[in-house]
Amino acid sequence: VHRTIDWDGEAIVAIDQTRLPAEERLLRIEDVATLAEAIRSLRIRGAPALGVAGALGIALAVRNAQREGTDLRAAADKAAAILAATRPTAVNLRWGIDQARGALDAGPDAVVNSAISLLEADVRTNRQLAERGADWLDAMRARAQHPLRILTHCNTGALACVEIGTALGIIQVAHSRGAVGEVLATETRPLLQGSRLTAWELQRLGIPFRLVGDGAAPSLIDRGRVDVVIVGADRIAANRDVANKIGTYPLALAAHAADVPFLVAAPESTFDSATPSGDDIPIEERAEAEVLSFGSARVAPEGAHALNPAFDVTPSELVTAIITEARVIERG
Amino acid sequence: VHRTIDWDGEAIVAIDQTRLPAEERLLRIEDVATLAEAIRSLRIRGAPALGVAGALGIALAVRNAQREGTDLRAAADKAAAILAATRPTAVNLRWGIDQARGALDAGPDAVVNSAISLLEADVRTNRQLAERGADWLDAMRARAQHPLRILTHCNTGALACVEIGTALGIIQVAHSRGAVGEVLATETRPLLQGSRLTAWELQRLGIPFRLVGDGAAPSLIDRGRVDVVIVGADRIAANRDVANKIGTYPLALAAHAADVPFLVAAPESTFDSATPSGDDIPIEERAEAEVLSFGSARVAPEGAHALNPAFDVTPSELVTAIITEARVIERG
Hints:
The structure is a homodimer. By secondary structure, chain A is α/β, with parallel strands linked by helices. Helices cover about 40% and strands about 15% of the residues of chain A. Chain A has 10 helices and 16 strands. In chain A, the strands form 4 sheets. In chain A, strands 6-5-4-7-10-15-16 form a 7-stranded mixed sheet. Chain A has a 4-stranded mixed sheet with strand order 11-8-9-14, covered by helices on one side. A 3-stranded antiparallel sheet of chain A has the order 1-2-3. In chain A, β8 (about 235) and β9 form a beta hairpin. Chain A is globular, with a radius of gyration of 19 Å. The model of chain A has no long low-confidence stretch (mean pLDDT about 95).
């Protein structure tokens, strides 16, 4: 199994996630413009993977400038601007960019090494996060006295990271401990990361699962079919409001109404202390065509328009706990 | 413009809704088995249209038995059993069946006339319902001092009825009075009645609209982008819990959290006094393939499974008002 994103010494190598589950195709990305396109079109996606991609993008820009004999700092600045603009809501992307740029005073090799260590840190971080989250579920499972039925949204697995996921990483470790009865995975319109990516990962991991429509999940929570909801995050504001894939907020509302725990799994790098609350998080609006079509097939009549926010904000009151590699932050 | 469903003197004529918006094809249905297939596969759909279809189905069975010289009551009983089993949640379907069967003592012509008068009553009923709902919105619009931004779910237009819709009928009349700024219509997975049918109707009516993903609607309500939510109903229990298309409940949760009115538009025939509460409403589960595929294109990996409830239940506490042809029932 390939890492979702990696550095081969000269270029970025990444799985093209738009081709899954039909085809497992590796991209070799040699310049920043190609990387920016890959991020915009979600060939590379997932908050932690975007952090790594941001750092590797700066490494790529600096290596290319070094080879061409142009100014390293100018190349890094330009790459940072291009990459940061691709996904305005994802804070990890900027964080990764800033980490790699921070090494620039120490020279180009330091930039590359910084990006590589961020890549390796993602693997360690998510392993810790997954173990910590599985511990939380163990306690819950002991109370429930049956394997847990876990609902998750979008894709937060290895495909969203480097080698092991966040929310899906927790589910993976919990499954290895025998704590998982079944996973319900939302299909996650419009781009169907649940049906395409999470289903593909769950199948490979041998974890029993069923897909559900995004609109069906809240009533399944209400009807007692779900023991716990676990999602990822794209940005967590200072007041702990959570921006995540569109469709997260209704799951949190339903979990709260049914008194079902709602967990957010995210590395510490997802916290954005500069953003006071969810109201201050910019919400990326994506192309209308994602909603108007299904795959390549037009669904809506010609001339119809759509509104396509990519993220929503779940207020901190609805979050039972945030699980990071370092701590579990329970609702106060 | 054709009626959604009609009687041509010998057979049922209906628009094949699975073909829209690409193609406007009329079906001519001459026997109960063909009608049952058309209902099961959603060629004919929508709570009020199902009531009409149930009544016309009994008329068809009785006319065919008359022609063949077989027992009328046996034919009606058999048709009733076949048709009622097609959509277990929809109470209007059984109501329509029962209305037509109730005329059997007066002979076959009475059965046909009963079905036809039910068809005509649907048009009158929904016209009254739409005017009453538009009056409610007028008062709201006066307070808001701007044209209303209305969110709706699934399809509740002429295509769900005979000639004018329920929730979408209200929107249509409100639009003719200048009270509608924009409609946000959910795409309504898995079968995309919003993107295919509601969009097609709104476009024909010249009402400005945009489509949104089912998972996006709750956060748009939360962010102040919606003044009022209006949906239909498939069954209303004695305690006024509302069964409606899957994905309705999260809209009600979000509207309640944001203090946005949540209206249910349904003819009186949708009330089922024999069902005490939402917990007692059977929830139809439809084929997994509706979630796993889109049209003929497989989305999820081979071997993946899905859970596909067709309806959810919104508790009466979350419903601001139920609007029927006869009254407005405000939350107590």
